[in-house]
Design goal:
heterodimer, A: mainly alpha, two-stranded antiparallel sheet, B: 7 helices
Chain lengths: ~180, ~180
């Protein structure tokens, strides 16, 4: 028993533990690639959508691999992010026309979707009395998921999404901080 | 390892399953000695036990993320260790068999059968450890020395349910049964 180099065995076991977690995270988050593929096909700017989609996948898989509170934030984050994504994909070809002219509904849809996503994340976070890493992870994932659709009019859409999200999230953050 | 230590190990494994790496070394230290002792008791050879225990520790910690906190930690870990010991035994036996065939001597089938029976009995006992006290007592009463007293419809039904649960535990632990 004394001849066994335990630190070496522990290092090998640690490597196996991390690798197993990484594999589980990549397989577990793989269904999001379907969402990325659909969003890329339907998007007006596929390259930007694909970039945000890959970002979503890497961040989500990384959070699942890490575990603890950030891991628990992945599902609510993706679910909240799907709201602006679906809203934008549905309205990307629509225009709102007034007397002076017409405008695309993409940016308002991004802002509205972001607002709903922010409220959703804040609600889940407050209900679970979640820690700061949960809020950060859920926000990152939902913003990246939403940004796949909001790249429809360049980065203005993404800014609209972020603005809406912050407005939706802030009341929840205040409630958590001062309650 | 007493009940309190087993509960502590269960808590630590649950934390590791959740991704809390700070307990990794602690879990490793708490598992190493019992796993090594267990492998030694199965293999009756220090060198083989060390090999099997190292392999088992890697497998246990590889599967740590799948650990179910509702299950007792030590039987779960030792079931994996038992499997590793069995794999090592089989590997050694096959190598020995190949060597004997090279030398023109027939391999003794009786030895392998004995080893397999012993492994099976140990696996069944590990699976029994997963059952409740009542189920264990029912099965011991049914198949043990006092089986003559194990009659009556109620006990028969209880025995059937206990056997079902034993089959389930065996399947969960070893993926067969």
């Amino acid at each position: 028993m004394e001849s066994v180099d335990l630190s070496h065995v522990e290092r090998r076991a640690r490597a196996r533990y991390e690798w197993a977690r990484a594999k589980a995270a990549l397989f577990g988050f793989a269904p999001v690639l379907v969402i990325v593929a659909v969003a890329t096909v339907l998007a007006r700017h596929p390259s930007a959508t694909l970039l945000f989609g890959l970002g979503t996948f890497l961040l989500g898989a990384g959070l699942l691999w890490y575990g603890r509170d950030p891991k628990r934030a992945v599902l609510p984050g993706v679910a909240a992010g799907l709201v602006p994504l679906v809203l934008v994909l549905c309205t990307s070809t629509m225009h709102g026309c007034t007397g002076d002219g017409c405008m695309m509904l993409c940016v308002p849809a991004c802002a509205a979707g972001g607002l709903i996503a922010g409220i959703a994340v804040a609600t889940v976070g407050n209900r679970r009395r979640a820690s700061a890493p949960f809020w950060l992870a859920a926000s990152g994932i939902s913003l990246l998921t939403g940004a796949m659709g909001c790249a429809c009019v360049g980065y203005t859409g993404v800014l609209g999404l972020a603005a809406g999200y912050v407005v939706g999230l802030l009341p929840g953050v205040f409630r958590r901080t001062f309650a | 390892m007493d009940t309190r230590e087993q509960e502590e190990l269960g808590t630590l494994l649950a934390r590791l399953a959740d991704g809390d790496r700070s307990v990794f070394s602690l879990v490793f230290k708490q598992l190493w000695s019992p796993t090594h002792r267990f492998c030694k008791s199965l293999l009756k050879n220090d060198a083989d036990a060390s090999d099997a225990a190292q392999q088992a520790m890697e497998k246990i910690l590889e599967r740590a993320s799948d650990y179910d906190p509702d299950r007792p930690a030590m039987p779960w870990a030792l079931a994996i260790a038992a499997w590793e010991c069995r794999t090592l035994q089989r590997r050694r036996f096959r190598r020995r068999e190949a060597d004997e065939q090279e030398m023109g001597e027939p391999a003794s089938e009786g030895v392998e059968e004995t080893i397999q029976e012993r492994d099976l009995a140990r696996a069944a006992l590990t699976a029994m450890g997963e059952l409740s006290k009542l189920d264990q007592e029912t099965l011991f009463a049914s198949f043990g020395d006092d089986s003559a007293s194990a009659t009556g419809a109620t006990l028969r039904k209880r025995r059937e349910r206990a056997l079902d649960r034993l089959r389930g535990a065996f399947r969960r632990l070893y993926g067969i049964g």
